[in-house]
Every structure is written in structure tokens, then in C-alpha cells.
């Protein structure tokens, strides 16, 4: 038996332990000697757990046991998780992680440490939950010139947007439910403010380019400002509101990356991706579009991805599983001001005339859709507190130009539109 250890018996860690037990026969198809969890590190006590005899509180018990070949780091964070991962790799123990925060911040360093010690640092579970996304990019599509990736990459926010849109549920209630279901981060700000998606699209960009895209350089906007009117405008435009991570390669080989809510046209293959599901649309110049959809968060789906890495590590003893992301200096990304797109804009109704002056041929949303403005309020009635607004879609323009023009209004609310050619 190949001996493994789990660091952190939380949502994902407990799923990893359960999966390795329950699917032992399936695992033996790829790793005939089988895989056994020898230790689980956690500072808490779990007297009722079937794994209570394997619980340890001192990481050195694991690191100093020469039988341990693979560690699953499911602790999260960049503190102890970094130290323990580094120490394990320096001993030639492969590390499989779901910790996108750590991968986005220290991925190249930890992969270099792994390579120097003939083991692997693997992170399939860090992006897209149970979707075999990184393996698809690294192997199945390794021959492709990937020019675009558009992804719904955060299960929590997709769940929240779905419930707000379909059931009219309020943000806080749905967020609490996402936490109960084990989807949200310990600090859900990372989900709802878009940081989690920004880390994931930075990891994807690094894999498809081979160079490091720093997540701190990814312009990032979350879903906390999305309101009922946005869903109504989206419906009028036959679109869905989705938090996307977007990465586009231009003709000069530069990458334009952004995380923000977008209006995704109904005909897009990403539009039907609802609830906790993630969806990723990958465009390669030869293969054209490839779409992957699956559960983006939750215990079992994420554990499945972690264990796929455990199997990969077990099949490469004493070697490093190759990864196209080579690290090096971070690459400059296309500045957000240069990125071009259309915008859905809401301004005070009294400033409707200014919209045409500033943007030229705008497309008024309610008028063209035939939806009367009161339909944007609750139960078809306009809300007394709701300011009378004028909603319109701009022509294509750069983010920089848009920001300048938007400054002319007394108040402005906007959502980006996903280019229909991209879907
Ligand atoms: N909080 C993350 C999400 C977990 O909701 O997608 C999976 O990375």
C-alpha cells in the first residue's frame, strides 16, 4: 500500500479520506498496490470519526515517517499550509492540494522545490472543483494554441446568483446556505468579492501561457453590487448574470485577464451553468471550443479532484509530473484600461440625454425589449425607493474610455457584456 497523509480534516480533507476508502477498488485499477491514509493532521479532536486512530496534531509525525509518499494539503491559507507543503516537498513527498490561494501565490516556487526533490506539487482541485480542468489543459489540450478561456469558476457565487435570479432570494440568506453546504471559503469575502475567481483565472492563464500571471494583477470585481434591476435588465437582453474569469490572448501574445460579473448571452454554452456548477469554455485555434461543466465546490467533488492527483503522484514515484507552467518573472498583463467591450449602464433617468451625447448609438434596454420600467420593481410594481433609471447598452469601447465617460454622470452602475463571438 502507498501511504498518504491528509493535512486538515475539514470539508475537503474529510471527503478525501472517505473517497480513498470508498473507491479503493477503482483506485487499484490505476495503482494496483492501493493507497491508504495513514495519518490525518488536525488540531481539533474528532472522537466519533472512523479515522480517530489516525489523527495526529504534530506534522513532524507525518514528515518524519519514511513510509509517507504523498500528502493531501486541504488546510487552506498561506501560513502553515505553505510551511508544511514546502517541508514535505523538500523530503521528496508529493503534495496534492485544493488550496488555490497557496497555488496562486507560491505555485512556481513549490513546483520548483518538487522538481528539485523528484516529487510533484499537484493542484487539480484548486480550480473548477471536480472538473478535470487543469489536466485537460496540461495534457489533452497541450498541443493547442489556446487563445481564450471564459469560466464560471466560483461555485458559491454561481449558487448565489442562481438563487437570487430564480427565487428572488436575498443575498445574505443564500450566502449562509452556501456556507452550510460547504461551498464558501472560510472567509466568504474571497468568493463574493471575486478574489477566488481571480486566483483561479490567474492559475489558468499561467498554465496556458507557461508564465506566471500574478493574481494581484487581475482586475477584480465581485457580485456584491448586483441587484434585482441587473437581473431584470439581463432578462430583457436575453442574458444571464455570471461572475466570470476571462483570459484572452491578443495577436502580440499578451494576455488580457479580468474577473467581473458579465452578462452572458442565453445562447452561450455557459448560460445554462447554474447553482454550484462551474463551466469553462476553452478556445483553441485548432480544436475550436471545448466546454467543461461540473460541480465547482463541495466536499465530494473537490475530494475527487484531489484524489485524481494522489493517483497521478502514486503513478510517478521518484519523478515529477510535468507541468507547462514554468514560473519565472511574472508576465505583464494587458492593462484593464485597454480591454474593449460593451457595457450595460444604468444612470438616473434625468441624465438619459447625456448617454447619447457621450456614447453615440446606445441601445436603451427597457424600450427595445418592450419591458415597461415598472416591471423592474417587485411584483411588477416600481419600488418607491427605487430611483427612476435609464438603462442602455454602449457600443464597444475600451474600459479606459468608459471610465472617463462614466465620470460625467451623477451616478452610474454598469455590468460588462460578454462578446457574443466569445461564446
Ligand atoms: N469557495 C470555492 C467556490 C470553493 O465556491 O468555488 C471551491 O474552490
Features:
423 residues, alpha/beta, Rossmann fold, Dihydrodipicolinate Reductase, domain 2, Alpha-Beta Plaits, 3 domains, ten-stranded mixed sheet, six-stranded parallel sheet, 16 strands, 35% helix, elongated, binds L-homoserine
Write the layout of secondary structure elements.
Elements: E1 2-7, H1 11-22, H2 24-30, E2 35-41, E3 55-56, H3 59-63, E4 68-73, H4 80-90, E5 94-97, H5 100-116, E6 121-122, H6 133-140, E7 146-152, H7 155-167, H8 171-180, H9 189-192, H10 195-209, H11 228-236, E8 239-249, E9 255-265, E10 277-284, E11 288-295, H12 299-314, E12 340-348, H13 352-359, E13 363-364, H14 365-369, E14 389-393, E15 397-398, H15 399-406, E16 413-417
Bound molecules: L-homoserine (HSE).
Residues 129, 154-156, 183-185, 191, 196, 296-297 line the site of L-homoserine.
Give the gist of this structure.
This protein is of the alpha/beta class and 423 residues long. It is built from 15 helices and 16 strands. The chain folds into 3 domains: 2-130 and 301-314, Rossmann fold, CATH 3.40.50.720; 133-295, Dihydrodipicolinate Reductase, domain 2 (2-Layer Sandwich); 337-422, Alpha-Beta Plaits (2-Layer Sandwich).
Description:
This protein has 423 residues and is α/β, with parallel strands linked by helices. The chain folds into 3 domains: 2-130 and 301-314, Rossmann fold (3-Layer(aba) Sandwich); 133-295, 2-Layer Sandwich (Dihydrodipicolinate Reductase, domain 2); 337-422, 2-Layer Sandwich (Alpha-Beta Plaits). It is built from 15 helices and 16 strands. The protein has helices at residues 11-22, 24-30, 59-63, 80-90, 100-116, 133-140, 155-167, 171-180, 189-192, 195-209, 228-236, 299-314, 352-359, 365-369, 399-406, and strands spanning 2-7, 35-41, 55-56, 68-73, 94-97, 121-122, 146-152, 239-249, 255-265, 277-284, 288-295, 340-348, 363-364, 389-393, 397-398, 413-417. The strands form 2 sheets. Strands 7, 8, 9, 10, 11, 12, 13, 14, 15 and 16 form a 10-stranded mixed beta sheet that branches. A 6-stranded parallel beta sheet has the order 3-2-1-4-5-6, with helices on both faces. Bound molecules: L-homoserine (HSE). L-homoserine (HSE) binds at residues 129, 154-156, 183-185, 191, 196, 296-297.
Amino acid at each position: 500500500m502507498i501511504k498518504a497523509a491528509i493535512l486538515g480534516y475539514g470539508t475537503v480533507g474529510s471527503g478525501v479520506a472517505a473517497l480513498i476508502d470508498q473507491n479503493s477498488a477503482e483506485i487499484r485499477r490505476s495503482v494496483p498496490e492501493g493507497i491508504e491514509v495513514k495519518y490525518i493532521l488536525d488540531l481539533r479532536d474528532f472522537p466519533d470519526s472512523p479515522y480517530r486512530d489516525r489523527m495526529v496534531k504534530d506534522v513532524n509525525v507525518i514528515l518524519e515517517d519514511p513510509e509517507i509518499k504523498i500528502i493531501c494539503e486541504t488546510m487552506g491559507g498561506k501560513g502553515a499550509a505553505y510551511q508544511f507543503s514546502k517541508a514535505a516537498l523538500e523530503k521528496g513527498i508529493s503534495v496534492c492540494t485544493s488550496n488555490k490561494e497557496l497555488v496562486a501565490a507560491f505555485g512556481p516556487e513549490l513546483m520548483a522545490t518538487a522538481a528539485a526533490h523528484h516529487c510533484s506539487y499537484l493542484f487539480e482541485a484548486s480550480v473548477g472543483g471536480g472538473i478535470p480542468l487543469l489536466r485537460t489543459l496540461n495534457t489533452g489540450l497541450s498541443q493547442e494554441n489556446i487563445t481564450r478561456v471564459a469560466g464560471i469558476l466560483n461555485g458559491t457565487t454561481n449558487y448565489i446568483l442562481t438563487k437570487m435570479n430564480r427565487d428572488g432570494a436575498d443575498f445574505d440568506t443564500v450566502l449562509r446556505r452556501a456556507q452550510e453546504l460547504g461551498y464558501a471559503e472560510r472567509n466568504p469575502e474571497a468568493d463574493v468579492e471575486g478574489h477566488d475567481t481571480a486566483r483561479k483565472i490567474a492559475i489558468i492563464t499561467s498554465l496556458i501561457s507557461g508564465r506566471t500571471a500574478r493574481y494581484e494583477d487581475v482586475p477584480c470585481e465581485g457580485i456584491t453590487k448586483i441587484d434585482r434591476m441587473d437581473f431584470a435588465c439581463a432578462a430583457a437582453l436575453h442574458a444571464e448574470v455570471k461572475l466570470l474569469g476571462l483570459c484572452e490572448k491578443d495577436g502580440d501574445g499578451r494576455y488580457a485577464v479580468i474577473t467581473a460579473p458579465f452578462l452572458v448571452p442565453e445562447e452561450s454554452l455557459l448560460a445554462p451553468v447554474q447553482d454550484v456548477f462551474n463551466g469553462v469554455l476553452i478556445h483553441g485555434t485548432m480544436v475550436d471550443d471545448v466546454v467543461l461543466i461540473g460541480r465547482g465546490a463541495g466536499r465530494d467533488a473537490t475530494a475527487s479532484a484531489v484524489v485524481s492527483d494522489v493517483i497521478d503522484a502514486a503513478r510517478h514515484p521518484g519523478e515529477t509530473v510535468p507541468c507547462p507552467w514554468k514560473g519565472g518573472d511574472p508576465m505583464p498583463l494587458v492593462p484593464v484600461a485597454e480591454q474593449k467591450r460593451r457595457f450595460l449602464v444604468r444612470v438616473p433617468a434625468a441624465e438619459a440625454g447625456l448617454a447619447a451625447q457621450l456614447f453615440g448609438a446606445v441601445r436603451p434596454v427597457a424600450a427595445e425589449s418592450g419591458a415597461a420600467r415598472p416591471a423592474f420593481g417587485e411584483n411588477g410594481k416600481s419600488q418607491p425607493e427605487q430611483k427612476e433609471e435609464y438603462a442602455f447598452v454602449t457600443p464597444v469601447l475600451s474600459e479606459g474610455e468608459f471610465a472617463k465617460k462614466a465620470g460625467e454622470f451623477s451616478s452610474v452602475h454598469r455590468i460588462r457584456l460578454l462578446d457574443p463571438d466569445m461564446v
